[in-house]
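Annex B. Sample input.
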Amino acid sequence: MKPLVVVIVGPTASGKTKLSIELAKRFDGEIVSADSMQIYRKMDIGTAKPTQEERDSVPHHMMDIIDPWEEYTLKQYLEDANRCVSEILSRNKLPILVGGTGLYVTSFLNNLSLSEETIDQPYRDALESDYDKLGGEEMLLRLSKIDPELAGRLFPKDKKRILRGLEVFHNTGITQTEQNRRAMESESRYEFLCFGLTAADRAYLYGRIDQRVEKMMQDGLLQEVQSIRNASCSRTARQAIGYRQFEPYFAGEASLEETVLRIQKESRNYAKRQLTWFRRDERIEWFSVDQMNFDNILNSCCERIAKHV
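Annex B, continued. Sample output.
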C-alpha cells in the first residue's frame, strides 16, 4: 500500500489549524504547511501562523524557512515539501499537509515536477509594471491568448498566477497547462485523504474573517508591518494580504480604520477565490463549520483516517 498523506484545505479563517493539530495529536502526526506566506520569517501575525504553544504541541514544517526579501518558487516548495513528507514517513509518523494556497496543494496532490527555469528579471519587472499600469483584466486577456485553459481558471486579481503563466511561457516556450499535463503523467507515490472546511452560509465565514483581522490588529499587526516594510521584500512577500494594504496608511492617504476595512474586504475576496479553486477537486470531502460543531468534524475525519492507518 502507498503511504497515507492527510490533506486539509479551505479558505482563510475556516479552522484548518485547529483541526490539523487535533488530528496530529490523535494519529501521531506532523504538519507540513501549504501556505505561500507562512514560509516567511517575521511575518507571523498577518499570515495567521499557529501560536508558539500550538507549534510546540505538534511538529510543524515549511514555516519560517526564508526571509521576506528572498524569492521562493513553486519548484522549491514541491522539493522541500516532498522532502518533509518523506522524512515524516521515515519516522513512522503521519504527514498532514495543511494550507490554503491552492497552487501549492494541487501541485503536490498531482505530483507536479518542475524543471529548472532561468529567471529573466527584466521581463519579470516588465510584467509587474504592465499589470500595475494596465490592470488585471488586460493581463488576463494577454494570458488567454497564450494559455486559455489556465486563464479560464483565474480572476483579474490573481496577479501572481497571471504573471506566472506569462513568465513560464516566455522562459520555456511551453504553456503552464502543458507543463502540468506532462508532469502529471507519473502517478504519485502517496495515497491522499483530503478534507475541506467551508461554510454553507458565506456570511458566517466572512464574519470569522472580519473577527480574525480585528484580532490581528489587537495582537500587533501594525507594528509587525512597520518592522519589515523598509526591507526589500520579494515580489511574493509584497503581495501578502494584511501587509500591502498598509501602504496608503503609511503614505497618509488612508486612516487606520479604512486600512482595516480594506484588509477585511480583500481577505473575504481571497476566501472566495480559495473556495472556487478547491471546489474543482473531487478528491476533497467537505465539512461546513457552520452546520457541524468542531468535535463532529474532528470525529468524522478521525473515522476516515482510522480506516487507512
